[in-house]
Amino acid sequence: MISIDRGLLGKGQLGDVIERHRRYGEFIDRLDIVVFSPKGYNDFKLSEKVSTYPTSSPTKVQRIFDAIRIGKKLCSQTKYDLIIAMDPFFTGFVATRLKKKFGVKFLVHFHGDFWSNRLNPGMKMLSRYVVGRADAVRVMSEGQRKSLTTAGVADRKINIISTPVDLQKFIDVSDKNVSKNVAQQTVLHVGRYDEVKDFLTLGRAWNIVAQKYPGTSFFQVGGGRKALQEIRDGGFVSIPDSDVLERSTHEELLQYYGGTNVVVLSSRSESFGKVLVEANACGKPVISTATTGAKEIIQDGVNGYLVPIGDAQALANKIIYLLENPDVAIKMGERGRELVKEKFGNNTEKIIQLWLKVSDV
After folding, report:
1. CA-CA distance, 240 to 252, in Å (whole number)?
2. Any idea what the CATH number is for the domain that residue 42 is in?
3. Which of 104, 110, 207, 120 has the alpha carbon at shortest distance from 162?
4. Which of 157, 204, 269, 297 has the fewest CB atoms within 10 Å distance of its CB?
């Protein structure tokens, strides 16, 4: 597997990424993961069957060449049945090089609705090159599948399997210190730093809410210093450093979900929106920009709200409405819990079956 998620190296993980990959290892003989990383990271063993290897590269460009080098070394030592790239860009390019040299089948994952959104022409060309050489593509939603087939990708090549979510862990979360007083309520955003998360719009929306209800608490989990700066650039300059975290264990994340009133996403692009499923499973209402993934999870006005992408005022309006109407928020959260129980769950075994099918094992 080729990945850019440094959480797999044992430092800075967000949520259940390590637990999820350990679970994959329970179904196969071996899973080795090459991770794009800056200097300062070491090899890390997640479990007896799952190991990660950082590129520890001085520059972003060097990470590509180091990933190819490490991948070639691993492929020379072990006969792999499948190579998995976690995106159709540079991890995908590395996978194409390894496939060409070693003849191993290659699966690429689309964790973003890249082709339905504005994409740098060079990156779009790269992604088309990668997809053209992949033996199969895994997407997270029906909307993504339509986007790829419209662009000419053969439907038989595309597989829809969303990110696994262990719903029971979230369903068991009980409300903790949740207030019905609007001035004491809490709003939560969960997501690592990435430009598509649109922290500028998030900061603008939070600033609008804070001006009306300055006592309301806001927490961002996963974005760290870069997210904090963009939130402040968006106008919410009064947010304390301590309210924007760079990392959180899965147990800590559950506590944040349990203690919040509303969960929001401001992304420009989401192929699935795992955070929305987790929040609903915890009985929390969700407000999100109308990305491809969010539209498959949120029934507008039922378990949450959808707002236009990039519209800070619309996002703030819905946050304020749910803060001012806590009974509505509670009912939405309860309905959300029922909806995600009906529609989503742990797809680990489905993913493993896809790996076996693509590799012809």
Report:
1. 19
2. 3.40.50.2000
3. 110
4. 157
**Quick one: angle between helices 274-281 and 326-343, nearest 10?**
110
Model pLDDT for residues 44-86, shown as the tens digit of each residue? 999 999 999 999 999 999 999 999 999 999 999 999 999 999 9
Do 176 and 311 fall into the same domain?
A: yes
Other beta carbons within 10 angstroms of residue 88's beta carbon come to 28
The full 3-state SS of the chain, as one line of letters, equals CEECCHHHHCCCCECCHHHHHHHHHCCCCCEEEEECCECCCCCEECCCCEEEEECCECCHHHHHHHHHHHHHHHHHHCCCCEEEECCCCHHHHHHHHHHHHHCCEEEEEECCCHHHCCCCHHHHHHHHHHHHHCCEEEECCHHHHHHHHHCCCCHHHEEECCCCCCHHHHHCCCCCCCCCCHHHCEEEEECCCCHHHCHHHHHHHHHHHHHHCCCCEEEEECCHHHHHHHHHHCCCCCCCHHHEECCECHHHHHHHHHCCCEEEECCCCCCCCHHHHHHHHCCCCEEEECCHHHHHHCCECCCEEEECCCCHHHHHHHHHHHHHCHHHHHHHHHHHHHHHHHHCCCCHHHHHHHHHHHHCC
Q: How confident is the model at residue 162 (pLDDT cuts 50, 70, 90)?
A: confident
Residue carrying the six token digits 């304020």: 320
Measured between alpha carbons, how far is 90 from 115 in angstroms, rounded to an integer? 16
Q: Per residue in 99-157, pLDDT tens?
A: 999 999 999 999 877 887 667 889 999 999 999 999 999 998 888 899 899 999 999 99
**Domain that includes residue 153, residue range:** 2-164+346-359
